[in-house]
């Protein structure tokens, strides 16, 4: 893992993406040139091939195919290392990605009225298949190798830590568990235990008062190349979430990353206004159509407002397209559920496609919300979740958003446990949110909307 503008990025994914791009592009170009030469029987064919190569069309075709293919991989979740590992045996998703890229490439050439020589097409297709097999076969096996860690601790924190590590996209193997009460520096140092377990990192998951591993012992590990992390620090780095069971609230509240200077606030506000204004202009015709459809489908106004809790606990009126019957909460506020019978016919469609949230751009322009941030909650649900989930108010350190890190990393939440899990992603965003992460979240949100994920 490495950090880019405060956001932790997977080094394994980056390596796979870059190496795969290079391998497929090189294989496409090599296959095209080789087969085109073999089929260039007469001088006319040779000249045609020469014109293709010298004009740069061959390079352009290779780049286009790589872009289409890797877009297909992204939409099929094949840059999720767990999904890629599961698919490696059957290759079903990989075949679908190749098929989509090939079809899209053929459509692109047809629209542009470009007819490259048969040798270029056949050679490029063969080279692409070889490049895919090499990249996914060789790199896939290498990147599937799990990282070995040693956990120091005893009690509920360790158990929860083991559960959380199972969710890691990049494989984590617990090489050893060390009870701090049984660690005797006089007989055996922590470094020796880590070496014997072939651990690459030591994770401190101790309960308060359990930290008997001395500073010298931990420093000795670091000096010898064994990385040392606190549990919250490791989860933030590897999982890009901050589990509340290992969170030190005071340490979180005093982190330097929470400080937002005038320039950072101005950049985020400018970005919000730019994106919200553009979306409002583009969606204006659609909004008019939705107003008519909602009014025809059920009685009541097309828009509705609801009080939500924003930054620093301040309540504001949030606007949405109405997707439920007017009497949806006649018995009190309840979480939305799967196949909710309160949802109208049009409402089911606009919720699935997230169109019901378009009016929130008005809240963004007013300054109540940001385009990216934690999901705004109702006071009644915050009170319910806060009774069982510590540090829930920490998510109110930034403005709520139309989309956010938790929304793209976790399914729709409709329980206290869901609130706890989404909070852990929200805390990561509160601490590490930057314009770079905002753009990445919007990019991922587009895929979620197109695939109908995370809505209810």
Note down, in words, how this protein is organized:
- The protein has three domains: 2-143, no CATH class; 147-239, Rossmann fold (3-Layer(aba) Sandwich); 262-451, no CATH class.
- The protein has helices spanning 11-39, 43-54, 57-75, 81-87, 92-112, 118-143, 156-165, 190-196, 215-223, 231-238, 249-253, 262-297, 345-352, 360-366, 379-388, 405-409, 416-432, 435-451, and strands spanning 2-4, 7-9, 147-152, 172-178, 201-204, 227-230, 303-309, 315-321, 370-372, 401-403.
- Residues 41-47 have low confidence and may be disordered.
- With 456 residues, it is α/β, with parallel strands linked by helices.
- It is flat.
- It is built from 18 helices and ten strands.
- A four-stranded parallel sheet has the order 4-3-5-6, sandwiched between helices. A two-stranded antiparallel ribbon has the order 1-2.
- It is 55% helix and 10% strand.
User: SSE order, as H and E?
Assistant: EEHHHHHHEHEHEHEHHHEEHHEHEHHH
Spatial arrangement of strands, main beta sheet: 4-3-5-6
Helix content: 55-70%
Instruction: Tell me the number of helical segments per DSSP (H or I, 4 or more residues long).
Output: 18
Overall structural class, as computed from helix and strand content, comes to: alpha/beta
Number of strands: 10
The global form is flat
Distance between the termini: 33 Å
What can be said about the biggest beta sheet? Answer: 4 strands, parallel
Q: Which percent range describes the beta-strand content? A: 5-15%
- Rg over CA atoms: 27 Å
For the record, the count of structural domains works out to 3
Mean pLDDT: 83
Low-confidence stretches: 41-47
